[in-house]
Amino acid sequence: MMTTGYKPEKKEASKPSIAVFYPSFEGGGAESVGLWILEALKPKYRVTLLTLFPLDLQRLNLAYGTQLSSENITVQSIFPGGFQSSFKFLMANNTSMKKLFNHWFIRQFKKQAQGYDLVLSAYNATDLGKKGIQYIHWIDVFDKDGEFYTKISDFSEERMKGNISIANSYVVADAILTEYGIESTVIYPPVVLDAQNIPWEQKENAFICSGRLTEAKQPHKAIQILKKIREKGYDVKLYLTGGGGGLYGWKYLRFLKKMVAENSDWVTLYQNLPYKDYVNVLAKCRYGIHYKKEPFGISIAEMVKAGAIPFVRSVGGQVEIVGQENQDLFFDGVEEAVEKILLVLNNSDKQQQLRSDLEDRQKIFYTQHFMKEIREFVENEFSCYQPIKSDLTL
Fold first, then answer.
1. In what order do the strands lie in the sheet with 267-271?
2. What are phi and psi of 106, to 5 degrees?
3. pLDDT at residue 386 above 60?
4. What is the CA radius of gyration of the chain?
5. What pLDDT score does 10 carry?
6. Which domains, and CATH codes, for the chain?
C-alpha cells in the first residue's frame, strides 16, 4: 500500500488513532461528508485516511472548504498515481469492476486497520473487520453485491451490523432500521457554500436544477415542468448544472441535451462546472427545482443556503431540508409541481414568508455544527467501549 502524509511526532503518540474508510473520491455530497469528518477529527486524533487512489488535498480543499494537509492527516492509498486514471475509468464505466475494486479495498482496509484505536467508515455501512463507526448515506451499498464479491472482501453482515451507525437523514435512519434492524443517529451533512448575498429583487426569475445529469436524477422533468409554466405566460429561465454518468449514461445525456437545444431560448446547461462558478449561477436564481426523491439531497440544501426557494418531491430526505411545515414547496408529480409553482409565483407575500422560513433552516447545515456533532459522537464512542481487536486472518 502506498502512503502519503506524515509520521506523527512522539508528542502525538498519546493521541488515539483512527483509520477512516473511503474507497474513491468521485465528487458529490458523500465526498464532502468524508472530508469534513477528517477536518472534524484531525485536532484531537491521529487520523489516517485509507483509500484506493492518491489524493490531491489542495484541490479537494478548494472544492469543499476544508484545510487538510500532510501535516494534519495521513493518506494511505492502495494504487500509485500512475494507475489512477485507468482504474477510475474502469470503476466509472463498469459496475462489475467497481464492485471488484471496492470489495478488494474492504479486504485491504481490514488488514491495515487492525492496529488502530478506532475504525470509521465515511462511506456507508460496511464490514470494517471490528466494531467501529459508519456514516450511512444509503443502504445496501456493499452487502447486496453478490456472493462472488463478498467472498473477495470476506464481508460479514454481522460485523457490519455491529458497528455504531450515523445516518444522513431520518429517511435513511428509517431505512437502516427496516433493512438491517439497527438504530442510528442522524447527523445532517455539512453544506459548504459561500454564495453572494444578492438581494431578491436583483436575482433572476430563474430556477436551478443541480446534480448528476443522469436518468436517476431526472433533470429532464425540470424542463417539462417549467415549460408548462412558460406556456401559462411566465417568463422563467432554467439553469441545469452537473456532471455526466459515464459511458453508460451517454444515451440519457444525449436525450437531455436534445431537450435543452429545443428550449435553448430559456434553458442553459452547464456541464462539469467548477464549484465556484456553480455557486455564482446558484446565487442569482430565485428558485430551485429537484425531481428525484433523495436520501438527503445536498444540492437542495445548497439552494436553501443560497437563499433560493426550492420545489421538491413530497417524500424523501429533501423534506427534512426544506422543512415539513413548508407544504407549498412539495409536489408528487409534474402537474402538482406546476400548480405549486404558480401559487408561489403569483403571491409575493408567500415568497417572503417562504424565504424567511427557509432562512431559519440554513443554520442546520453549517460545517461548524456538523463538526461539533461528529466530535461529540466519536468522543462518546471512545468513552463507551474499548475498541475490540479482531482475530481476522485475511
1. 267-271, 237-242, 204-210, 285-289, 309-313, 330-331
2. -55, -45
3. no
4. 22
5. 42
6. 2-190+368-384 (3.40.50.2000), 200-364 (3.40.50.2000)
Can you give the pLDDT at residue 364?
87
In sequence order, which residues have a C-beta less than 8 Å from that of residue 248 and are 6 or more positions away?
93, 95
Q: What integer pLDDT is reported at residue 11 of this predicted model? A: 44
Q: Which of 202, 242, 204, 203 is nearest to 222 (CA)?
A: 242
CB atoms within 10 A of CB 35: 26
At 345 the pLDDT is 97
Least confident piece of the model among 169-178, 290-299, 365-374, 382-391: 382-391
- Cα distances from 121 to residues 88, 172, 230, in angstroms, run 20, 16, 46
Our CA angle for 332, 334, 335, nearest 5°, is 95
Give the span between the Cα atoms of 387 and 20, in whole angstroms: 15
What are the pLDDT digits (tens) for 97-122? 989 999 999 999 999 998 999 999 99
Amino acid at 126: T
The answer to whether 128 touches 117, Cβ cutoff 8 Å, is no
Residue 360 predicted with pLDDT over 90: no
Q: What is the pLDDT of residues 138-184, one digit of tens each?
A: 999 999 999 999 999 999 999 999 999 999 999 999 999 999 999 99
Q: How far, in Å, CA of 150 to CA of 315, rounded?
A: 32
Arithmetic mean of pLDDT, 274-303:
93
Compute the CA torsion angle 141, 143, 145, 146 (nearest 10 deg): -170
Alpha helices of the chain — where are they, by DSSP H?
29-41, 57-64, 84-93, 95-112, 147-153, 157-161, 170-180, 220-231, 250-262, 275-283, 298-305, 318-322, 334-345, 348-361, 367-384
135 neighbors 166 (Cβ within 8 angstroms)? yes
pTM over 0.90: no
Instruction: Calculate ∠ Cα 373-374-377, nearest 5°.
Output: 85
Question: What is the Cα–Cα distance from 133 to 128, expressed in whole angstroms?
Answer: 9
